[in-house]
Design a protein that fits this description.
Butyryl-CoA Dehydrogenase, subunit A, domain 2, 52% helix, 3 domains, Butyryl-Coa Dehydrogenase, subunit A, domain 1, single chain, four-stranded mixed beta sheet, binds flavin-adenine dinucleotide, Butyryl-CoA Dehydrogenase, subunit A, domain 3
Length: 380
């Protein structure tokens, strides 16, 4: 495993840095965080960043996951708020690319790669989050249509996205094996959205999504009936590496702020960074980030070689998000009272870090997956 960036990855990183400096930061300063940043998203498409690891025949970049996570980490480290947008947009792309028919791939992937269509992933329901096989949204086959009824919650890009991958029950009483997945397009009669939810951390746009006798063509089934849970879990295995990447980006950004601040802020006649108490915090923060980054890189490295990676993906998600929580909290501590102020950047990073410990399987669920995989290996 090579720990340095390849020349192509370094070029991509520079492209991201240039884009964030020239366009993203001025955009946020001018427009604020209230609305989804459509111009920035479209620009990601123009720059070839909206489908990095997907096949070139469908307009993707044809690059490996290692390159993809380099971009996500860098977008987040630089405070663009676009790393998580790409990470979520990537879930429906993964699903369509992996399980979709040729017609579905041709219809959605090139437009998603150009960032003309935004994707969303709709699994969670008000009474079924971690226990995702317990969802209630129903999909009933009626002739050549499926009729969807139910409700999703916390759907990132809900109301904004054009393409929703929706998990729904096609056979009641069969648990995970009764779940199927569908593609539902914005504008379909019966697809409705609740008000914008306001989770902490910027700028997550989540909404409730309702299916009120929402009729979709039979051809919108992804994979086979009863395969929906597998479809969702397969996407989340890969998605977790991207959550690790954005969380490490957040942690690195907080660390960079804290390190600089420790040389500027004076107490007892010295820079606070001269005190061993602060130095030890900085050392632990840097070591934690480095360790989490290496596990994330290993997970991507395994995936790029077609080797099993779900154990390492869960470890990467767990370590990166817990590290990000700790590092951002310590960054606030290093800033002292100023750390809690909205005039300084670190409190927002702390709130953003918390989201990582919850999405795409909480960290309790990651521990369950890791333990299950370890026991499975022992028994084999
Ligand atoms: C900002 C944000 C964006 C999101 N985006 C999306 C999205 O785009 N699409 C989507 O489908 N969902 C999305 N979600 C939902 C997210 O995936 C769920 O919130 C998450 O899976 C947890 O489910 P829950 O909130 O129902 O918590 P619960 O499942 O009710 O869990 C509550 C607590 O119990 C713990 N717990 C549950 N079961 C166990 C167990 N067996 N052992 C130990 N502890 C356990 C959990 O870890 C947690 O701490 C998003 C959530 C947020 C906050």
């Amino acid at each position: 495993m090579d720990y340095t960036l390849t020349e192509d990855q370094e070029q991509l990183r520079r492209l991201v840095e240039d884009f964030v400096t020239r366009e993203v930061k001025p955009y946020w300063e001018k427009h604020g965080y209230e609305d989804f940043p459509w111009p920035l998203f479209r620009k990601l498409g123009e720059l070839g960043l909206a489908a990095i690891p997907f096949p070139t025949e469908y307009g993707g970049g044809g690059l490996d996951y290692s390159s993809y996570i380099t971009v996500l980490e860098e977008l987040t480290r630089l405070g663009s708020h676009l790393g998580s947008v790409l990470s979520v947009h990537g879930l429906p792309q993964l699903i369509i690319n992996h399980f979709g028919t040729e017609t579905q791939k041709q219809k959605y992937l090139p437009a998603m790669a150009r960032a003309e269509l935004l994707g969303a992933f709709a699994l969670t329901e008000p009474h079924a989050g971690s226990d995702a096989a317990n969802i209630n949204t129903r999909a009933e086959l009626r002739g050549d249509k499926y009729l969807l009824r139910g409700q999703k919650i916390w759907i990132t890009h809900g109301g904004e996205a054009d393409v929703y991958i929706v998990m729904a029950v096609t056979e009641k009483g069969k648990g995970a094996r009764g779940v199927s997945s569908f593609v539902v397009e914005k504008g379909t009669p019966g697809l409705a959205f609740g008000k914008r939810e306001r989770p902490m951390g910027l700028p997550h746009h989540t909404r409730e999504v309702f299916f009120e006798d929402c009729e979709i063509p039979r051809g919108n089934l992804i994979g086979r009936e009863g395969e929906g849970f597998k479809v969702a879990m397969t996407a989340l295995d890969s998605g977790r590496i991207t959550v690790a990447a954005t969380s490490i980006g957040t942690a690195q950004q907080a660390f960079d702020h804290a390190l600089r601040y420790s040389t500027e802020r004076k107490a007892f006649g010295k820079a606070i960074g001269d005190f061993q108490g602060i130095q030890f915090m900085l050392a632990d923060m840097a070591a934690g980030i480095e360790a989490a980054r290496l596990v994330m890189k290993k997970a991507a490295w395994l995936r790029d070689r077609g080797l099993p990676f779900n154990l390492e993906a869960s470890m990467a998600k767990l370590l990166a998000t817990d590290t990000s929580m700790k590092v951002t909290t310590d960054a606030v501590q290093i800033y002292g009272g100023y750390g809690t102020s909205e005039d300084y950047p670190v409190q927002a990073l702390m709130r953003e870090a918390k989201i990582g410990q919850i999405v795409e399987g909480t960290n309790q669920i990651q521990r369950m997956i890791i333990a299950r995989e370890l026991l499975k290996k022992l028994r084999q």
